[in-house]
Amino acid sequence: MYRFTRSAMMQPMINYGMGMATFFKVTVFEQEHFEGKCQEFTSECCNIQECGFDNIRSIRVESGQFIPERGEYPHWDAYSGNLSYHVERLMSFRPVYCASHQSSRMTIFERENFLGRNVELCDDYPSLQAMGWCGPEVGSMHVQCGAFVCYEFPGYRGRQYIMECERHSGDFQHWRNWGSHSQTPQIQSIRRIQH
Predict the structure, then answer these.
(1) d(CA 82, CA 151)
(2) 98 in a domain, yes or no?
(3) Domain assignment present for 100
(4) Does the pTM of the predicted model rise above 0.90?
(5) Residue 71, domain extent
(6) Residue 90 above 60 pLDDT?
(7) How far apart are CA 152 and CA 71, in angstroms?
(8) How many helices (H) and strands (E) does the chain have?
(9) What Pfam families does the annotation carry (predicted)?
(10) Residue 37 predicted with pLDDT over 90
């Protein structure tokens, strides 16, 4: 029988969008289907190995907004969102603090440093090119309010980048500011993060 543990931080976090306190709570499991060693977190975890896990194989997001969103993820492909980009390891996670904005708005730019053609987005876009965007790449972006997940491919597939108004003051001048592991500014679909 495995022991259930809680992380040290149990205080409420501030929900910036609504102006009130809320709790963030996620439980991670060492094995698929919510089995094996588990631990509850109420704040970010930068490296799950520092908490005694080699890997996370299933997740239960119980309150607040994390990436992944609220729900149960019994195995890796339920939370990875991409079967073509095979990664069975989840090594870190964090809450999204500004995901509760009732309106989300961002502007994407064709080139770095907010130059070139631009368009304001305030909805979900499964294909930027289908809505008239000039190509498969975004050079820079400014998040005025809310939070978004930007995806490498159409249909919300591929690598995911979290863009929040609370990070970098919402200014992402260059694709390297996105936390990108790839060597390309390719963004082809965008989805709002909302409670």
Answers:
(1) 10
(2) no
(3) no
(4) no
(5) 4-80
(6) yes
(7) 23
(8) 1, 14
(9) Crystall
(10) yes
Report the alpha-carbon distance of residue 65 to residue 148 in Å, rounded. Answer: 12
The C-alpha atoms of residue 136 and residue 11 are separated, in whole angstroms, by 42
Instruction: Tell me the two tokens of residue 135.
Output: 């190509």
Residues 6+ away with beta carbon under 8 Å from 50: none
For the stretch 141-186, pLDDT in tens is: 999 998 898 998 999 888 788 888 887 888 999 988 877 565 678 9
Q: Across 67-145, where does the E strand assignment appear?
A: 71-73, 105-111, 115-121, 140-145
Token pair belonging to 108: 């994407």
What is the end-to-end Cα distance of the chain in Å, rounded?
35
Report pLDDT for 161.
85
Are the CB atoms for 160 and 101 separated by under 8 Å? Answer: no
How many angstroms separate the CA atoms of 187 and 83, rounded? 18
Residue count (the chain): 195
CATH number of the domain bearing residue 73: 2.60.20.10
* Alpha-carbon dihedral sign for residues 113, 190, 106, 42: negative
- Contact call for residues 7 and 42 (beta carbons, < 8 A): yes
